[in-house]
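Shipment paperwork, digital attachment
Item: protein structure file
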Amino acid sequence: MIIRWVKGLFKTKGPFSITIDARKVVNGFKKAEKHANKFLKKKVDKLADNTLRRLKSATPKGHTGNTRDAWVIDRRHSDLGFNFEIRNESIIMKFLEFGTKAHGPKTKKLLYVPISKSAQGGYKKGLKWGTDYVMTKKVRGIKAHGIIKAENIVAQREIKKILDQTRTKLINFR
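Attachment content:
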């Protein structure tokens, strides 16, 4: 395998002696490492962009679209590797991912449920019952969407493909 990478690696002296030029081996590995790092950085950046795009499209838009827009990507490239972190800091994302259970009021007889944006801050004088808000004994829970869980499976599959492609590139490197 290594013989294909570096020309002039082995020098024979007589019928029984072989000398290996270690500098050529090390230089060959350094070239292959630079090539692999360049290839991996490009692939990891593309994976990060695709993952972010899929997460945004899978997140429901809702009233404002703020939860969908709250996805951010943090890329950390160093000598040790290429990392990225995608997160959504919206508190609503927790409810979308894991769901909620059916619940009612804890201390009062009825639960205040805002319908319009103007009623979301709590009751104010001038709000209309049935248009801006309703009072109810209980509300249904939100079914878990599992957006992050599903995307994690897809991303892991893509990472395996990238590693296989990198391994193939290294084997065929000249």
